[in-house]
Amino acid sequence: MQIESLIYSDKLWQVVAEYAQNCSWKAGSTLAKQMKECHFSDWERVFAALDGDHIAGYCTVAKTDCIPDIAYTPYIGFVFVEEQYRGKRLSEKLILSALTYAKELGFDKVYLVSDHVNLYEKYGFVKIDEKEAPWGAMETIFMHLT
Predict the structure, then answer these.
(1) Single pTM value for the model
(2) d(CA 127, CA 115)
């Protein structure tokens, strides 16, 4: 399994955008739209987990996430692993790659927004806040030291 850090000019960018568009997670279409509309700039990245030529999952490192008007940055977002690869610690590999990248950029903290309970805590994230998302659900904001 290989983790690739992608920017818009990479040949895998459009492939990963299509994969996200067609994956089983409804948020994948949001990521695909952001990728196709060049929402990622500067140091922001999409990380793709590759099993040979097959995409097995992805995540992002971005300046913002789904909750507007809060000062936290950067975020790991859109963490997704295809069903057949779950249970093999692929989420952890994606997250570790994203954390390493953020640390290389000089960030000492990384944030993540989720409604999952007892998932990201096992990767070292701690709850620091809770906010209402634009769609009305309460979301937890987690932090991880790099």
Answers:
(1) 0.95
(2) 11
